[in-house]
Each structure stands twice: as structure tokens, then as C-alpha cells.
Amino acid sequence: MIRLQNLTLQRGPQRLLEGAELTLHAGQKVGLIGANGAGKSSLFALLRGELGPDAGDCLLPANWRIAHMRQEVDNLERLAVDYVLDGDQHLRQVQRDLAAAEAGHDGTAIARLHIELDSADGYTADARARKLLAGLGFTSEQMDRRVGDFSGGWRMRLNLAQALMCPSELLLLDEPTNHLDLDAILWLEDWLKGYPGTLLLISHDRDFLDSVVDNIAHLEQQKLTLYRGGYSAFERTRAERLAQQQQAFEKQQAQRAHMEKYIARFKAQATKARQAQSRIKALERLEELAPAHVDSPFDFSFRESDKVSSPLLDLSEGRLGYGDKAVLQQVKLQLVPGARIGLLGPNGAGKSTLIKTLSGDLDPLGGRLARGENLAIGYFAQHQLDALDAKASPLLHLQRIAPGEREQTLRDFLGGFDFRGDRCDEAATNFSGGEKARLALALIAWQKPNLLLLDEPTNHLDLEMRLALTMALQDFAGAVLVVSHDRHLLKSTTDEFLLVADGRVQDFDGDLDDYARWLVDFRARQAPVASAAVNPDKTDKRAQRQAAAALRQQLAPHKKEADKLEKDLGKVHEQLAAIEERLGDSALYEAARKDELRDLLAEQARLKGREAELEEAWLVALETLEELQRQLEAAD
């Protein structure tokens, strides 16, 4: 197990932890969350042995192997697949020793090292590395390219694959989803669910945390608090603790009043119906979640456009791509005020191509693209972060697009994005990726857009800023077209999905769970083609047996999870039955027992919420099991 006892950790003048206590058991999967600068990455460095405690103890089993996702790339000349294989250092050492033994014609050593190579799964290592790379979105051709040929985001994917390749008892992942698309995130979730060791994960993706971890360690006020369950359970539990603070209720009630006023005003208007429905969904969740975010430093909205056109954009018979190469054909898309659209599709299918064309960054190769007379686009993409003036402050950036506005008005607006005091006047060259993203969003929000085109807007944003962006998008009166790997953002701000795949853009009749199943089928269709491209001779009986064995290996953790969920659900049913029996006692409703009745009703409400969560998770687990069993029957 991992034990932190009365731990104090300091970096320079800043004390990150003081008297912290934490115990993690082998096999636990834990999400580590906390404000930026609270000390999450420093805690990882402590566990890796790169830092020592200033007081107290950090205890880990001496024989544990630790794998972590590095943040730098130090060998640009290695082939991608070899770079990933380097993650298994023991395997690499055996291979080097074997090469030396063979060069020296040492038969005894060669025999011994071949046994070691087999025990280290060395004969399947290349195939396992390629499988990791394929899951993270690399094509067969890319796997044999130099690391230096890839952009920064793809190099981070290589670092992630290298960490997953390393055999370990403890896996430390710091923001592994930052440079992944939704397809790769869904694949990574499945991989981590099957990981047998202890996982400690830093992430700002709440759905990813909910899917992967079974505990949340919250770093706040120099202490570590362990919560059972995923991020949503943490949010509810923390909200219950903070709900006793009056300021939490004041903020909550103000948000409720604003939403209820909006719903009452616009629910009956067809042009505003979608926004009203989104607001109703948000209102249902607000009561239990608002107190958990009472201390959020973010509070902003997109300024309302003065004029609007309908439609805002109308694309017909669109042929979209680069140069002479068409990526998408026969695209028909009309965007009207109030539209809330999420773009889904495999990596490289053309989602960014579509957004770039609509924004004007790319000209259509064919077809007709008509823009409304009063169209005002707010376009967010990662390359725009690099286009910020590194020498200019947030205030100067905003003054350039609003030269006639009072400085205090601009400072107040930037404060909603947590640029306050001296931070308003600091040059952007010192900003982190998250701060640059917030500044880019602030500039868009100021300019009164009536169409938002958002390409991965949550990259580098922390949980609080993601929530603030979600609320601002729900409050936005214009149209939204968004590509995001953040499923909570998609579920909370969109009403319909378009699927970009196979050179087409089509309506997707389903939700994100349906899309996850569609991806499984899509990958299955692509797999035979990819395998044949690598080596047609591998489609033999041995490969089929290996595929069946791999499926059986995948089946075991899913069955274990389904059984555990069913068992937990049974326990909740028993607890609810006991509560309902007690509620049937008429004496319970006497005035003297009102506190007991209140507590019992609260416990009943909590258990019903838990029952719904477990039922949903159990059904998903059963569906996954059935799908794997069908694939296993086909492989056999």
C-alpha cells in the first residue's frame, strides 16, 4: 500500500502539504484533484522519489515498479514503435544482453536469456506496442515514423503509450487525456479499467474520472481528503459538506432564479426552446452541485450579439479538404440561431476540416457556402493560443479590440476569467496553456458572437473553468458547433450530434453511449484492413488464437466488474427495503421523532441516487460483456 503519514511538502517558499494523511491500498484507482498550483504534480514527484518529504513519511513497497507519463521527449530519432518499447526497460536490458551473448557466441547465456525474454513477454512486445499505438490513434504507417516527425500533442501520446508499455505496480498519469480525442479517451478508459495495479490519475475530465477511478483524493488547504466513488460522487459529498455555508446557498439561489426566469420567459418560444431545454437540464443538477463550486474563481458569459441572421450559415453540396484532396463530400449543413450541435467522428475523419471551412480558415473545394448578413463568428482552436501576442497582457489584448471602452469595465470582464490585479497586466509569455485558453475565450466572449465554432475548447482547462464554460454556453443565445473530448460538456450544452465519418457528415441518432458502441463496430470494421496492411501473412490460425486469447483476457475484468456492481446493487436494495420497513412505522411520524424521520428520508434519497448510478453502470457492463462474448464466439 501507499501511506502518507503527517506529511509536509514544500517547494521553495510555498508549503503544499502540511500534516497530510493518506492510505491507498494495492489495486485502488484514485483520481487526484485540486486547484492549479496546489501540489498535485509535486506529489507525483514525491512518489517517484524525485522529491523528499520536508517532514513526515511517504511509504511505498520497496519492490513496486512505478510507471509514469513523462512530459518531455528526449529521443527524436527513434521510431515511434521503438520509443514505446523503450518503456519496458527490463525487456530492453534483456534484449541488449541477448545481443551481446549472441555476438560472443555464449550458448549458455543465449539459452538463459531466451527464457528471460519469454518470461518478459518479449516475443509479443512489438505486437503489444503497436496495439497501444493503434488504440491511441496512430496508423500503421505512423508507427514506423521518427518521433521527431510528430507534433507536440502526438509526442505526448507516445509518452502515454510508453508509460502503458512499462510493467508496473503503480501507474502515475498526469493529464493523460489533454492531447487525446474522444475515440482515444474511450479506448484509454477500457485499458485503465483492466490495469491490475494501483493507479493515481490527475485529470480535469470528470466523465473520464467517473469511468476509471473508484476514489477521489482532493488536495485542498494543504491537506488530502479521500472520497469514495468517482468525481460525481465527490462533488455530491463535498456539496453536502459545504451546503451549511450560507454563501453557498446565496450563490445557488441567484443561479436558480436566473435560470427559472429564463425558462419561464422562453420555454414557449420555438426559437428559444432548445436553450430552455438545456437550461432545464442544468437546473435539475444545479441544486446538488452548486455548493461544491461556491469558491470557483470563474464567472463569465458571452456577450449578446446586437444583430442576428437566420440562417447564420448555409452549406450545400460541400466538398471540403486541402489542396486537391477532398476529405468530405456532399456536405449539407444549415446553422440557425439556437442550434446546439456536437461533432462526433473518428480521429482524422474531418471534424476540424469542417470547422475550419465554416470559420473561413479554409475555402470549400466545391459546393455553396452562404453566410448570413449579420453573422459574427467566435472561433476557438488550439492554434489560436499560439497566435496570442506573447508580449501583450490580457488587458492590452482586450483594449486592442475595445479601444473606446473604460479600463475598469475591461478589468471587471477579465476578472470573470480569473485575470485579476497584476495578472491583468502580466505579459502572456509567462502564461500556462490553461491561462492562454482562458484569454482566448475571453476575447471571443467580448466580441458578441452569434455563432461559436469550438474545436476542443477544454484542452488545458481545469475542472472549475470547464464548469464555468459549460454554464456560459448554456446561457449563450446564439448557435454552437463544438468538437470536444469532454463528454460532460457535450451532454450539457448540445441537443444533437452530427457524425463525421467515411467522407460524409450525417445526423447521428443516439447519445454518447451509442457513439461508444458505434466506435467499437467501426474499429472492428477497420481492424482487418489494418492487419492486412501490416502483414497479410499474419491472418492465420495462430493470429486468430491470439485474438481469441486477448478477448478472453479482456472479458475477465469486465465480468468481475459486472459481478461487483450486481453485488453492490443487491446491498443497496436491501438497505432501501430496511428503510421502507422503518418508514412504515406510524410512530415514526410523531413530532418527537421528526429528526429521525428527516435523517431517514435523506438516507433514502441518497440510496435511491446510488441505486440509479449502480443500475446504469451494471447495464453498461452487461452490454460490454455481451459485445465481447459475441466477438469471442466469432473469433473461436
TrEMBL record:
Residues 548-617 form a coiled coil. It comes from the Bacteria. Residues 2-246, 310-527 form the ABC transporter domain. Keywords: ATP-binding, Coiled coil, Nucleotide-binding, Repeat. PROSITE patterns: ABC_TRANSPORTER_1, ABC_TRANSPORTER_2. It holds the Pfam family ABC_tran. SUPFAM superfamilies: P-loop containing nucleoside triphosphate hydrolases (SSF52540). GO terms for molecular function: ATP binding; ATP hydrolysis activity. Gene3D superfamilies: P-loop containing nucleotide triphosphate hydrolases. Belongs to the ABC transporter superfamily. ABCF family. YheS subfamily. This is Probable ATP-binding protein YheS.
